[in-house]
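G., the chain you wanted modeled:
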Amino acid sequence: MRVRDKSFFGASALLALALVPAFASCAESHVDQPSAPDDSLSLDGGGADAGNRDAGPDAGCDPSDDDCVARPLSCDEAPWCPVPTTVSGFYALTAVWGASKNDVWAVGSGGTIVHWDGTAWTATPTAVKNTFNTVWGSGPNDVWVASSTDAVFRSAGWAGKDTEWERVPLPLDKDNDAPVFAIWGTKAGDLRIAGQSFYLPVPDTEDFVASNAFVRHLLPDGSFDWVGIPGTANVYGIWGSGPEDVWLVADNSLHKKWELGLTLHGSGGADGGALTWTEVDSRSAVALRAIWGSSANDIWAVGDMGSIRHATSATVTKLEVVPSPTSERLRAVWGSAADDVWAVGDVGTILHYDGKAWTKTAAAFPVGKKPTLYGVWGSARDDVWIVGDGVALHYTGAKLGDAGGSQ
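Predicted structure as tokens:
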């Protein structure tokens, strides 16, 4: 199926009434998102293991269960080591992105936004207590975070605790506010914000059209224009090798029961024009939650029940089903190269692809229930971050005596 990425709300764009199942990232509507705790909970204090403070054998954690850590590994044994974030362990960190090794951002519940400067994580204040679901930037001076269409923020860079986050209004009525799950772009003037579908008015009529994304365009006069994209699916992930080669994974099962693992590939669109979208057979009967590629000819998608899918060509029409060492939900995927890819998910699941096969690896979790892991990003092969429920994990390369997948 091919459809044009028609748009509206542009300076001179006309509305296309064809509904395109298009673009989001990490959960099933509101149901699967980490909920923001009581506002009275402090963002200060609580180390990397604080999220497990009420877990353990005395809190219903059975040592015989796979989701329980009975014998904790040390950071000398495990390749992944917790790093204190100054964020309360009762909060979840849902996404991570960085401009460099010493310039990393993580976001999460309770309006949490924290920054890594190469030495420590520091929190920055925000105007909302929403759960931020996604973070992305074109560089150190153009960083975006989002919770919903009414809570999109941009920062011009790191300035310590005085960092200012500017709220960016989207052309959408607050009554139609919808969660945002994914942000992706190629430069400051070109990005896509997508998530749960919402309704936009059709210009000069009383009608509305289902939409699920906004695209930001740079206009000739130097200003920016937000263009709404029609679509009925909840978009869970976006990745592209460039503005003319974009992939997304989404769930359109509310409208078509068989489109749980909807995967679309957008191509063309030279000079800011509309993309042509082709539906790619994901061969998945469950939702795919995230997508990433090392190049236009090497794309990975992961999702529910440990699903792993692979594309080795930008013109592929069917994704390859790849054997997975887990049946847990996978929520994020990122790599430094084609032979160095990471995927993370529920029950502390951390998988690594070495160019040949996916295998489990371990982290130095404390005694108690293993956390859900939501995001992964790195600056290089030996500098990777994973974030999740009350935890930030850092990888600095394989170690002597690596504990592998058992814990």
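The first strand starts at residue 2 and ends at 4.

Shout if anything looks off.
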